[in-house]
Amino acid sequence: MPTLRWQPIVTLLLSLVGLGVAIYLTITHFDTHITLSCPAGGGLINCTKVTSSKQSYLFGIPVAVLGLAFFLPMIALSLPRAWRSADRRIHLARLALSVTGVAMILYLIIAELFIIKSICLWCTLVHVITFILFVIIVTATPIVLTPGYGLETDRADYLVPDGS
Asked: Residue 98's domain spans which residues?
């Protein structure tokens, strides 16, 4: 059975990077004096076109703000202590949030490719981070939800089965 030594650290780091990008996108969304930095700047890769499109809002909320609403709780749910928790609700909340995140990025990718017809590299970074989080969480959740796994332990090799 695989161990879960690296998943808490990787998910926490990915969530922190995702939050940083979401903060940057939120700031550039609301502050018209700051220009969104986008390497190509035009053609297929056009961050400004994507982030200022009608699809950059969902239910009247800027998608960048929704990114904040995704990554803030994901950081809390990705802390090593949360991964070690015996409370199944924490692991299920992490799973539900990651599934919601992937559903959102699928919508956004479809909007970028088929409606806006441009790609935002900053958004793509968020999409990749969200997808990697999803894969890690979906593959780890059955392990951490195994009854009797003994998640609350002070051993240095936390989240490793006792060998029984």
From this structure: 11-144
